[in-house]
Specification:
single chain; alpha+beta; seven-stranded mixed sheet; four-stranded antiparallel sheet; 20 helices
């Protein structure tokens, strides 16, 4: 309306000044549309297409069965005049709408999301990757898919935008209504759009080529108390239209619905396969489209400009890990994320002030953001496509093997230089060959386990224990150091309960535990803890001890002496199977040392060749390493002092 009043002229000039007839597909669409919009009777404002669309909407909104819809439509036909041209069944209504070219495809899926029965795989009966059964037989003998996906093709819907008089002229709005620099009221004003036009001038020369945005997010269609079920719709939006049109419901296209019950996660690309094929066709090839506003045919292309999603969906669509300190795909290793001291979680608070201009006032603020911190660093450099691809290949590169040599005692994994000055990476002992991986998969696939194992007669007591403990846990307040006492209740009668201790373990290595064999004394360093063991133990397996500090010994302020004691009010009976607590720790040390002595060399001594470019990197790093060894940190020096004290005591 504003353009009409002020006479804004279009800068788009069609390549041909004469009108063209619609192509064959567009001509068929117009013929079907003309027949569908024919009035029900002379002077009626409604058409057969209007009735069909309204009936389909009513069925969808109120979840009406198809049989009920057929009965309703039949009653409407009996009450109406024979001259009224209305569909006689719900099937005819669906067929009328589908003939306009906006139908959907029902694609069968593997229940585990491994593949789609699509294109050349449409005739398969089971998963071609793992052999999963994907069809089940109904009582009537018909084979139906266990899981299916509804896909709505995007190309016919884009064609309808240019074939409709109400939207065809607006598809050039982004090109005909450029704003002055510094003003942004449409995505075409962004630098990303302008950069795309400069990079692909051939596509930018045709303003009717479509710029798309993809939106994805998951939700639970049922209540929170119901069984978990994840549903992921995928939407596409054409951004050629003016702002008040492109973000409205008629122009946001539902492309597909990925059904649950689980979140697709990394398998989302399997369900997006049909969309990817259509986007490739629109980008690499072209689609002949009729523009009703200019009365001409042209070759339409389309591009996916960006995606709109939250952080979990961003991980699924891009493949970027969004957990840990490297979750930001812009900062990456330059991230300033930190771990909360008490919450022990990663935080990105005040990590993005570096992207502000260097003279911005926020950079100098010490109280508004992190306490007593200013920001003087420039923003991170944007990586090129080659650099991103190189980082994707760095997981097992030669630099990792150099780190093994620097920090680990694993000489069997060091890089080896053989004949012809070629460098090879030895395979580790825990790695498998391709045939071994297949054998493991076959073993797991054929593994069958019984649901219930019991010996003797089945009793109600065994059944109650098999059901597991209840959800209620009782915490007991006691004077226990380093231990939390919990009590689990099992269902059924008589009442069954078990007491667990939730423990905090001391470090069993030589840095946290010392044994004086002559005096039969065990010392533990109370400032070091070990979190890799299961924290829960049965109360019957615990022994009571107390810890005594060393008096007047500043060098042993962090060490306690472990002294075994008897529980109050209980007499212990000697048991030949019982082992003294002092004998347990040396056994732990012996087990850990035995595990560390195992070689990591592959039994077949398999070597993998290293690229020549990586070899030059290795040589440079080795030259730098010959300058001198690094000095040890304070912690290692303290460990050496502790070892010397042990030797002094043993002497």
């Amino acid at each position: 309306m504003v353009n009409d009043v002020f006479g804004v002229q279009s800068r788009f000039e069609p390549k041909q000044n004469f009108e063209q007839p619609p192509n064959e597909e567009a001509m068929g669409f117009y013929q079907e549309l003309e027949e569908a919009i024919h009035p029900l009777w002379v002077g009626s404002q409604h058409s057969k297409l209007f009735v069909a669309v309204r009936m389909i909407n009513i069925k969808s909104d109120w979840t009406i069965a198809e049989v009920a819809m057929d009965s309703t439509i039949k009653l409407m036909g009996e009450l109406a005049s024979p001259e009224f041209d209305i569909p006689t069944s719900y099937y005819q209504e669906n067929r009328l709408v589908s003939e306009l070219g906006v139908s959907y495809d029902r694609i069968h899926c593997c229940p585990n999301g491994c593949m789609l029965f699509y294109k050349q795989d449409a005739d398969l009966n089971e998963c071609k990757l793992y052999g999963h059964a994907c069809y089940r037989q109904t009582p009537s003998g018909k084979m139906v898919p266990i899981k299916a996906m509804h896909y709505l093709p995007v190309i016919p819907r884009l064609k309808r935008l240019l074939a409709s008089p109400s939207s065809a002229s607006h598809m050039r709005w982004h090109n005909e209504n450029r704003r002055t620099p510094g003003v942004m009221c449409h995505p075409s004003d962004r630098e990303a759009w302008k950069h795309f036009d400069r990079t692909y001038p051939n596509l930018a020369s045709e303003p009717r080529n479509i710029h798309l945005g993809l939106c994805a997010d998951g939700f639970t269609p049922y209540s929170v108390s119901a069984a978990p079920y994840s549903c992921w719709p995928i939407f596409l939006t054409p951004y050629n239209l003016l702002p008040e049109m492109c973000m409205t419901s008629p122009y946001i296209f539902l492309n597909c619905v990925i059904l649950g019950p689980r979140t697709p996660k990394v398998l989302i690309d399997v369900y997006l396969q049909p969309l990817i094929d259509e986007l490739k066709q629109l980008w690499c090839e072209c689609v002949v489209t009729y523009d009703v506003s200019t009365k001409s045919n042209f070759n339409m292309h389309a591009s996916l400009m960006w995606t709109i999603n939250d952080f979990p969906a961003y991980e699924m669509l891009s493949g970027w890990m969004t957990a840990g300190k490297l979750a930001c795909s812009y900062c990456m290793e330059n991230s300033k994320a930190f771990t909360l001291k008490h919450g022990h979680k990663n935080s990105w608070f005040d990590c993005h002030r570096q992207f502000l201009p260097m003279d911005h006032e926020f950079r100098k603020m010490k109280q508004a953001f992190r306490k007593n911190k200013t920001e003087n660093d420039p923003p991170s450099r944007a990586l090129s496509g080659e650099e991103i691809w190189g980082r994707a290949r760095q997981k097992h590169n030669p630099k990792a093997r150099l780190d093994f040599k620097e920090y680990c005692r694993c000489p069997e994994l060091n890089l080896q230089e053989l004949v012809n000055n070629k460098v090879f990476k030895p395979k580790a002992s825990f790695s498998f060959t391709l045939e071994e991986k297949r054998e493991i998969c076959r073993l797991v696939k054929n593994l069958r386990m019984r649901r219930v194992y019991h010996t003797g007669e089945h009793t109600q007591f065994v059944e109650d224990i098999a059901l597991g403990p209840g959800s209620e846990v009782k915490t007991m307040k006691m004077y226990i150091v380093n231990v939390t006492r919990l009590q689990l209740m099992y269902p059924g009668y008589p009442k069954k309960k078990i007491t667990l201790f939730r423990c905090k373990w001391f470090d069993p290595s030589q840095r946290g535990t010392r044994v004086n064999r002559q005096q039969n004394i065990i010392d533990v360093k109370h400032t070091r803890q070990y979190n890799r063991c299961d924290p829960f133990i049965i109360a019957q397996n615990a022994k009571q001890v107390y810890y005594a500090p060393y008096p007047l010994r500043r060098d042993k302020a962090d060490w306690w002496v472990v002294i075994k004691t008897k529980p109050v009010g209980r007499i212990e009976v000697d048991n030949a199977l019982d082992v003294a607590y002092q004998n347990d720790v040396p056994f732990v040390h012996q087990t850990m040392d035995t595990e560390l002595e195992n070689s990591l060399e592959h039994p077949q001594n398999i070597l993998e060749e290293v690229d020549e470019d990586d070899v030059t990197i290795i040589e440079n790093v080795e030259e730098e390493s010959t300058d001198g060894p690094e000095t040890s940190n304070g912690e290692e020096s303290s460990d050496e002092n502790e070892t010397s004290e042990d030797e002094w005591e043993n002497d």
